[in-house]
Design a protein that fits this description.
The chain is mainly α. It has two domains: 67 residues; 240 residues, MetI-like fold (Orthogonal Bundle), CATH 1.10.3720. It has 17 helices and two strands. Strands 1-2 form a two-stranded antiparallel ribbon. Keywords: Cell membrane, Membrane, Transmembrane, Transmembrane helix, Transport.
Length: 321
């Protein structure tokens, strides 16, 4: 009996599928110890990352605590339309975009420059000391960092204003001045995360083949030339990956620091999506509306992640996927 062409194609697909299953099973059997160690991570993400996604349904419902998620009335896109038509939308969008953009522009290059400069230091003891002090702020909570900023910038006894008074200048209430808020926020982000993020780039620099530096040194290259033509190009894949991650989180500004630093006098430049969700959801108990705003913010962040990944692949040939 002659086999038809469709039957041959089906047989090939089944054979290929069986080969992939066998190969996957062999890999799982070979790496079973690592997979067992990975189980707590899977459970964590299933419970605390993907499980709560079920609650996004309330963004499309008029959620009532007593009726529950499924029992609440379905309203479709009403909360989204209400948010887009509100006068707060463009102000929140502008503040979130500018705060995220300034953080990306200023805070992203600093760890790279710091890691490259620290790599050029020849004293191992000095290098380790500077590195230790630089990443210590990353272990401080947002509350502690915000409290330090408030104390340093206090108009009565703050360190900055005391220095201004010593120079004969007038003390200034920085946190009540809208023109100062974004600079203060971005500066605090640089100080808090620069040392910790520099560890990633230092690890990438440590993986560079030392023979490249030896060959450049023999050819008479200066340390600046080696840094420019060897160090920077060699860690460029890491820089691109970090850029994609940072760009994707540009709209995901945490509400904690902004909430602790802003006040009614700086709402016009400091109020962002996350603080708006906090006020509407927790303070005003408007859960469905707050969920709709939060979902919109997440969609914008996803778009930014996809866009930055595509730009990175076109510019440097590398991306997250």
């Amino acid at each position: 009996m002659q086999t038809t062409q469709p039957e041959l194609a089906t047989g090939r697909k089944q054979s290929a599928r069986h080969s992939r299953l066998v190969s996957a099973w062999r890999h799982m059997k070979r790496d079973r110890q690592l997979l067992i160690l990975f189980i707590p991570c899977i459970v964590f993400y299933a419970l605390f990352r993907y499980g709560p996604l079920y609650g996004l349904i309330i963004a499309f419902k008029d959620y009532n605590v007593y009726q529950g998620i499924l029992g609440s009335e379905w309203v479709g896109l009403e909360h989204f339309r209400k948010f887009f038509d509100s006068p707060d939308f463009w102000l929140l969008f502008k503040n979130t975009f500018l705060l995220g953009l300034f953080t990306l522009i200023w805070a992203f290059p600093f760890p790279i420059l710091f890691a490259v400069m620290l790599n050029e230091v020849r004293s191992v003891k000095f290098k380790k000391t500077v590195q230790t002090f630089s990443y210590l702020p990353a272990f401080l909570s947002v509350v502690i960092v915000s409290s330090m900023i408030i104390d340093f910038l206090s108009p009565t006894h703050g360190l900055v204003n005391e220095a201004l008074k010593a120079l004969g200048l007038e003390a200034k209430y920085f946190l009540a001045a809208p023109e100062w808020f974004r600079g203060i926020y971005v500066s605090s982000e640089i100080w808090q995360h620069m040392g910790y993020e520099a560890i990633i780039y230092l690890a990438a620099i440590a993986s560079i083949d030392p023979t490249l530096y030896e060959a450049a040194r023999v050819d008479g290259a200066s340390r600046f030339q080696m840094m420019r033509y060897i160090t920077i190009p060699s860690i460029m894949p890491t820089i691109l990956i970090m850029f994609i991650i940072k760009s994707g989180s540009m709209f995901r500004i945490g509400y904690e620091k902004v909430l602790l630093l802003y006040n009614p006098m700086t709402y016009e430049v400091a109020d962002v999506f996350s603080t708006y969700v906090y006020r509407k959801g927790l303070l005003e108990t408007n859960y469905s509306y707050a969920a709709a705003v939060g979902l919109f913010e997440s969609v914008i962040a996803l778009i930014m992640l996809l866009l930055s990944n595509r730009i990175s692949k076109r510019a440097g040939g590398r991306g997250l996927w």
